[in-house]
Amino acid sequence: MTGKGDGTRVVHAGLPAPVPGQPFLPGPVLAAPYHLDPVDGPAENGYGRPDNPTRRALEAAIGELEGGTVRAFASGQAAITALLLSVLRSGDTVAVPSDGYFTVRAFAEGALRDLGVKTVLVPTAGPYPSFEGVRLVLLETPANPGLDVCDVRAVSAAAHAAGALVAVDNTTATPLGQRPLELGADLVVASGTKALTGHSDVLLGYVATQDEALIERVTTWRAQTGGIPGGFDCWLAHRSLATLDLRLARQSANAAAVAELLSGRADVTGLRWPGLASDASYEVARSQMRRIPGIVSFDLGSAERVARFLTTSELVFAATSFGGLHTTADRRAQWGDDTPPGFVRLSCGIEDTADVIADLTAALDGA
Ligand SMILES: Cc1ncc(COP(=O)(O)O)c(C=O)c1O
Questions:
Q1: pTM exceeding the 0.85 threshold for the entire prediction
Q2: Of the candidates 82, 83, 98, 60, which has an alpha carbon nearest to the alpha carbon of residue 186?
Q3: DSSP H helical ranges for 167-300
Q4: Ligand 1: which residue has its CA nearest to atom 2?
Q5: CA distance 238 to 14
Q6: DSSP-based three-state secondary structure for 315
Q7: Spacing, Cα 101 to ligand 1 middle (Å)
Q8: Pairing mode, if any, of strands 295-299 and 343-347?
Q9: What digits encode the pLDDT tens for the residues 276-319?
């Protein structure tokens, strides 16, 4: 599907060639052991942990979109920790975003530290330190939840010059929003739990790379530690992937309208959306992103006001996670993120834009 548009690519990604009488997307293969050839032993499918055709089809689909070989995991955390633990050794240093997903930071400063790996925390917007002596630079752009963006090309070049590997967490952007491997990164890691699958019914993660040695390490790691996604979840994810282009388009359009609404309100501060021309991330985002995600962050001043906003709203669900069909809002301080008490990450769903704007306006007025 090279040269085709995003909508076409996601609809066809990872599908087998047409066979009369067979479905477009084969159903989920739910198997722990498979029949073995009594004489020759294992062929393509021997046992469910290393081998599952539904998972392979999903990996092929995501791989087409990211431009690399993909290994799927049971969650984003399973994928990210698989990368960190299969690449890093005692005595290594890893650079991790200071403003990215907090569980990654907690893992680096806890389990990795205990294994003798040193962590350097770096703000996504920079300034970036020298990467001399750093083994792996993990970027998260746009960063969750503050939505700062970093220049993947520039940071990758600096890291490579110092001999470091670069991995980009592509959760927020998705492979339709940016392709880090084309921007110079060695690896992509992501949670597919968010916009990639988008229906709030699956946890999923993946690692993508064009580097055969790295993918072999990650594959061995996964086969030995067992953090695989189940066949049914892979099938749900693959089915959901087909609408990614449509979902992102509506989410982004809703976010643009929400950002415009919020930028005109004196009772909202700290508005961030990288698609706003006035946003600090706008220029870098424009230079490397193919579309801007549907996530907006802002400050309502206090936890009480956020609670009133959420209880007054008819459409916005109070929920963590983001990138789904439904508009959701999360007060990040309640999870321990280093954000002000009234800081909200709003994830725009695919509802009608006019309804979202009317609902948010009423909820803000009521709060
Ligand atoms: C940027 C980012 N990376 C990784 C993760 C972890 O993903 P999962 O919840 O699928 O383990 C999250 C979860 O919110 C995230 O926001």
A1: yes
A2: 83
A3: 212-225, 231-241, 244-263, 282-288
A4: 101
A5: 8
A6: coil
A7: 7
A8: antiparallel
A9: 999 999 999 999 999 999 999 999 999 999 999 999 999 999 99
